[in-house]
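Students often ask why we bother encoding 3D structure as a string. The short answer is that it lets us treat folding as translation between two languages. Here is a chain of 79 residues written in the first language.
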Amino acid sequence: MKRLLRLPAVEAMVGMKKSQIFQAAKAGLFPKPVTPMVNGRAVAWVESEIDDYIDGRCAARDAEPRERARYGRPPTRKA
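And here it is in the second language, the structure alphabet:
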């Protein structure tokens, strides 16, 4: 069963604000919202798509080279 999340829940899950979410969705970098209501004004996101987005961000982080994984510190040189 699919669950729909409203904007405040999505903001809390991904740590982005409304404008960032809509810009990223427009650019194809974030899941697009659906309109669950008949009036077409309310929007929501499919929870599984948000979970997949978060998993993808974690995978991208884990795929970075090891030196960058140390929070941007330059590699230490042994003299």
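Translate back mentally: The domain at 4-70 is CATH 1.10.1660 (Multidrug-efflux Transporter Regulator; Chain: A; Domain 2). Keep this in mind for the problem set.
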